[in-house]
Amino acid sequence: MRIISYNIQYGLGIDGRYDLARIADEIRDGDIIGLQEVERYWQRSGMVDEAEALAALLPDHHWVYGANLDMDASYRDEGGRLVNRRRQFGTMVLSRFPIISSRNFPLPKFGTLDQHSIQQGLLETVIDPGTGPIRFYSVHLSHLCSETRMPQIEAILDILRRAPAEGGAWCGGHPDPAAGWTEGEMPPMPRDLVLVGDMNCTNTSPEYAALTGPMTGRYGRLCNTDGLVDAYVAAGNDENGGSSNPTGSRIDHCFVSASLRHRVRAVSIDDTATGSDHWPVRVDLD
């Protein structure tokens, strides 16, 4: 199973062209794909619904979209009829396997006076690739500084911890089965998870340590038995190596629950991709 994480910079490539078809070709081999910076109805990208457009270009994938920045973009047509439309910016998950359920969580936002600060969120999906269900998350963290990202990391860790106890999208029975609330099988909320996204931080940051465990001078990284592991490292790569964008830093990551670390077979970063100012990260799992 191939997992891909890609910040597509709303389709704007390093050559200054908007080209969603190019993006689709760069991720077509993915079985489960987490995208960041997917927008709908922005003037800069031609007022395109990028989520719908990407889904049309990848018709064999199920998909969900998580709108984090959400504003009015409605208008009246020539006949005066109101066309309701939202200008949105967020994350997306595409999967060759059915997406059983999804939730979108807003993350803490720092209100700035002069610097640009946007609402960001964590998109959760539950997917069963045939080997048992997993939770798959796509996220994009604040670009401003470590201090604006740390509250987001803390919120993410809380969400990840709570999920199994909260249960699936619905759980339990209902006093009146005929009411239809328990249509279909009860959806799962598994413990195993994969978290991908543009974290805007490297392995030397406190955010990375909060996710994976502290670094010690004598014993190396102290990963927890019930915590997260950097898939790049689990695949045998040097934690200090790699780059996920032309600036030379590895800020796009895939973290897996410790229970999945032995299923990581390979991680590669496609530095030939030109569809964005980031490069796709590919993770192969058994």
User: What is the percentage of strand-forming residues?
Assistant: 25-35%
Task: Enumerate how many helices there are, as a single number.
Answer: 5
What is the CATH homology-level superfamily? Answer: Endonuclease/exonuclease/phosphatase
Overall pLDDT = 97
- Low-pLDDT windows of residues: none
**Morphology call:** globular
- Total count of strands: 16
Q: Let me know the largest β-sheet.
A: 6 strands, mixed
CATH topology: Deoxyribonuclease I, Chain A
Multimeric state: single chain
N-C termini distance: 6 Å
Q: Order the strands across the largest sheet as they lie in space.
A: 3-6-2-1-16-15
Radius of gyration: 19 Å
Domain module count: 1
- CATH architecture assignment: 4-Layer Sandwich
- CATH class categorisation: Alpha Beta
- The ordered string of helix (H) and strand (E) elements is EHEHEEEEEEEHEHEEEHEEE
Structural class: alpha+beta
GO molecular function: endonuclease activity; exonuclease activity
Keywords: Endonuclease, Exonuclease, Hydrolase, Nuclease
Protein name: Endonuclease/exonuclease/phosphatase family protein
Domain Endonuclease/exonuclease/phosphatase: 4-278
Write a brief structural summary.
The chain is built from 5 helices and 16 strands.
Describe the model.
GO terms for molecular function: endonuclease activity; exonuclease activity. One of its GO terms (cellular component) is membrane. This is Endonuclease/exonuclease/phosphatase family protein. InterPro entries: Endo/exonu/phosph_ase_sf, Endo/exonuclease/phosphatase, GPI-anchor_lipid_remodeler. Keywords: Endonuclease, Exonuclease, Hydrolase, Nuclease. The protein is α+β, with helices and mostly antiparallel strands and 286 residues long. The chain has one domain: Deoxyribonuclease I, Chain A, CATH 3.60.10.10. 17% of the residues lie in helices and 32% in strands. The chain has 5 helices and 16 strands. The strands form 4 sheets. It has a 6-stranded mixed β-sheet. The chain has a 6-stranded mixed β-sheet with strand order 7-8-9-10-14-13. Strands 4-5 form a two-stranded antiparallel ribbon. The longest helix is centred in the middle third of the chain and has 21 residues, at 146-166. The mean pLDDT is 97.
